[in-house]
UniProtKB/TrEMBL annotation:
Gene3D superfamilies (alphabetical): Methyltransferase, alpha-helical capping domain, Vaccinia Virus protein VP39
Organism, scientific name: Nelumbo nucifera (Sacred lotus)
InterPro entries xref list: MeTrfase_7 (IPR005299), MeTrfase_capping (IPR042086), SAM-dependent_MTases_sf (IPR029063)
The keyword Electron transport appears for this protein: no
Record-level Gene Ontology MF annotations: metal ion binding; methyltransferase activity
Pfam family, one: Methyltransf_7
Keywords: Magnesium, Metal-binding
Superkingdom as given in the UniProt entry: Eukaryota
Protein name: Gibberellic acid methyltransferase 2
Keyword Metal-binding: yes
Length: 382
């Protein structure tokens, strides 16, 4: 049967499975990255300010910039451009000298690096490259570069993805067994604690690796999905509407329940699927930086981003089916590889179809304006 052929236990590590959907069709990440793009636009002034205030490296022939968790598409390319343009402007002004630039696009090995490489900018003229690009496959929870290699490291909308699902969450006998839910918002205390512990270990591992790789005076800029400090981790998403409308909550759980009720999967298959994401608070991020040491935090803030533009919302109110389709494409773009690893391609598509139906049926929700929370950190390697 299809399910048995495909079902994998990937609780031990997601490195080989997790990625955003490649290519450029309707279900690809490249076409469904508006929310990360809004987050980047919002944090752009902070990134520019961070690059403007970092020290210049005199005598370095080339500067090295990495985007960790780059995926594919416009967001990573425009971010690398922004960092390089800002640095280039500073070197021209202050040093009358322009170093060469190397850009490292890093993501898990399953990322669609081919699509990314095809969209790289061409030569400025026949001789000169805007920057020298390279792909670096691997998990940012491990070392990716030699010591003291990087001058700037950015990671955008990526660090809320955990390295693994905590084992206790998948253990039927454990109090932390996450029955009937695909994610942790509103889950039992024990489930959320297990995720929080994993998140804590992961963030410390990330920072320890970057502490080795970034040169003294270099910049680390992180933007990740996060939650407001006042909220307990059981509430990952803030206000009740934003919680109910988030693609990982109600419609997702209903879609799994539909597959179960239709006899397409059994309960265990539903209950062993979990989404490996955790929204940290400012306090949790600050604690990890202090425990790791080696960085001076220059900025650490929480920001709230409206889910869609007013125009988009009005368009969807007129056509709820297209809303369901857009939401399902977003879920396909972000979750397809891990859902397929669990269910196989055919049943995964059935799940996404149920999700689409559930999302477009929830007309009341369409009228609500919802928000995503993000945490932005800018730190200098001491
Ligand atoms: C939502 S996308 C963000 C992509 C891009 N930075 C942007 O802003 O559009 C998250 C990316 O993080 C990557 N990612 C998740 N966990 C990772 C890990 N442990 N190591 C490296 N990349 C990871 C995913 O593969 C995915 O490409």
């Amino acid at each position: 049967m299809e399910l048995n052929e495909w079902q994998q236990t990937w609780s031990g590590g997601l490195d080989r499975i997790l990625c955003m959907q490649g290519g450029d069709d309707d279900g690809s990440y490249a076409r469904n990255s508006d929310a990360p793009a809004s987050a980047i636009s919002l944090s752009k002034p902070l990134l520019i300010a961070a690059i403007q205030s970092m020290r210049l490296f005199h005598g370095e022939a080339s500067l090295r910039i990495a985007d960790l968790g780059c995926a594919t598409g416009f967001n990573t390319l425009s971010t690398i451009d922004l960092v390089i343009d800002t640095l280039r402007g500073r070197y021209n002004k202050d040093c009358a000298f322009e170093p060469e630039f190397e850009a490292f696009f890093s993501d898990l090995p399953s990322n669609d690096f081919n699509s990314l490489f095809r969209s790289l900018p061409p030569f400025i003229d026949n001789k000169k490259k805007r920057y020298y690009a390279a792909g670096v496959p691997g998990s940012f929870y491990h070392r990716l570069f030699p010591k003291g290699k990087l001058h700037v490291a950015v990671s955008l909308s990526a660090l809320h993805w955990l390295s693994r699902i905590p084992e206790v969450v998948l253990d039927k006998r454990s109090l932390a067994w996450n029955k009937g839910r695909a994610w942790i918002d509103g889950a039992k205390k024990e489930v959320v604690e297990a995720y929080a512990k994993q998140s804590d270990e992961d963030l410390r591992a990330f920072l320890q690796c970057r502490r080795e790789e970034i040169v003294e005076g270099g910049t680390l800029f992180i933007l990740m999905a996060g939650r407001q400090g006042l909220e307990q981790p059981e509430n990952q998403l803030g206000d009740p509407d934003s919680r109910a409308k988030h693609p990982f909550t109600s419609s997702m759980d209903q879609a799994w329940e539909d597959l179960l009720n239709e006899g397409l999967i059994d309960e265990e298959t539903r209950d062993t699927f979990n989404i490996p994401a955790y929204m940290r608070s400012i306090e949790e991020v600050e604690k990890a930086f202090h425990q790791c040491g080696g960085f001076e935090i220059q900025r650490l803030e929480y920001q709230r981003i409206v889910e869609h533009s007013k125009e988009k919302q009005e368009e969807w109110i007129r056509d709820p089916v297209s809303y369901g389709r857009a939401k399902a494409n977003l879920v396909r773009a972000t979750l397809r590889p891990i859902v397929e690893a669990h269910l196989g391609p055919k049943l995964s598509e059935e799940l996404f179809k149920r999700f689409e139906k559930r999302a477009s049926a929830d007309i009341e929700m369409l009228h609500k304006t919802c928000f995503y929370g993000v945490i932005v950190v800018c730190a200098i390697r001491k």
